[in-house]
């Protein structure tokens, strides 16, 4: 049972980590090399990795999606989709796809005369199942060596820690005031019952001994 317990906890921790890693904003310093629009089929299970804005039909099987092609400072390529999130999860409330595409167009550059930019995004890139992170904002920076501080993630985890400590405190107080006294009452009642059973056993043994002597 011990191994089962730790296996379940490890699986739950992995699910939580994956959820947060996919959902929380990340920042990449890149050079924009191209922007384009491409029609995407949304008929298989990978549809969950594409946005579903509120103004689009739930029965839509394909649609045109805008993309931003980039190259990182280390030479690796990265392609982002540019879709509105609307009021759907994750809650970025993004409605400015067209404006973001125009900003990306304006930041296009060549290897000889690079323009560097920070793209904020969420999601994963996987070439095997053709999923792309969704860009939520873009802004120019002076060089690829600038330091980006993830303020949102810092505040998010700080708030999460405060909530966890608060819930732990509430649980400890509830346990101290409600559960522990109840367990003590149950333990006391069990001890009393055990004592009465022991006394009854002694009386029964004494009676049997006295009866046997008479016989």
State the helical fraction: 40-55%
**What would the average pLDDT be, to the nearest integer?**
85
Structural class: alpha+beta
Q: Quote the beta fraction.
A: 15-25%
Give me the strand/helix succession.
Answer: HEEEHEEH
CATH class of the largest domain: Mainly Beta
Number of strands: 5
Number of helices: 3
Termini gap: 55 Å
- Main beta sheet: strand number and arrangement? 5 strands, antiparallel
Structure keywords:
215 residues, alpha+beta, OB fold (Dihydrolipoamide Acetyltransferase, E2P), 2 domains, 5-stranded antiparallel sheet, 45% helix, 22% strand, elongated
Describe the structure.
The chain has helices at 2-23, 97-106, 151-214; strands spanning 26-41, 62-72, 77-82, 116-122, 134-141. It contains three helices and five strands, in the order αβββαββα. The protein folds into two domains: 25-148, Beta Barrel (OB fold (Dihydrolipoamide Acetyltransferase, E2P)); 150-215. A five-stranded antiparallel β-sheet has the order 3-2-1-4-5. A hairpin with a 4-residue loop joins strand 2 and strand 3 (77-82). It is α+β, with helices and mostly antiparallel strands and 215 residues long.
Quickly describe the structure.
The chain has 215 residues and is of the alpha+beta class. It contains three helices and five strands; from the N terminus they run αβββαββα. It has two domains: 25-148, Beta Barrel (OB fold (Dihydrolipoamide Acetyltransferase, E2P)), CATH 2.40.50; 150-215.
């Amino acid at each position: 049972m011990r191994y089962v317990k730790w296996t379940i906890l490890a699986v739950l921790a992995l699910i939580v980590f994956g959820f947060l890693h996919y959902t929380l904003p990340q920042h990449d310093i890149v050079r924009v090399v191209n922007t384009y629009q491409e029609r995407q089929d949304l008929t298989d299970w990978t549809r969950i990795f594409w946005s579903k804005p509120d103004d689009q039909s739930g029965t839509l099987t394909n649609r045109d999606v805008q993309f931003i092609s980039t190259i990182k400072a280390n030479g690796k390529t990265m392609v982002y989709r540019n879709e509105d999130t609307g009021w759907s999860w994750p809650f970025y409330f993004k409605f400015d796809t067209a404006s973001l595409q125009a900003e990306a167009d304006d930041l296009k550059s060549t290897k000889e005369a690079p323009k560097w930019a920070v793209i904020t995004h969420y999601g994963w890139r996987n070439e095997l199942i053709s999923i792309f992170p969704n860009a939520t904002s873009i802004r120019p920076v002076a060089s690829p060596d600038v330091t980006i501080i993830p303020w949102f993630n810092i505040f998010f985890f700080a708030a999460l820690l405060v909530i966890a400590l608060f819930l732990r405190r509430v649980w400890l107080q509830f346990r101290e005031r409600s559960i522990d006294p109840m367990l003590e009452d149950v333990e006391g009642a069990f001890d009393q019952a055990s004592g009465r059973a022991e006394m009854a056993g002694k009386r029964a043994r004494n009676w049997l001994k006295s009866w046997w002597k008479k016989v």
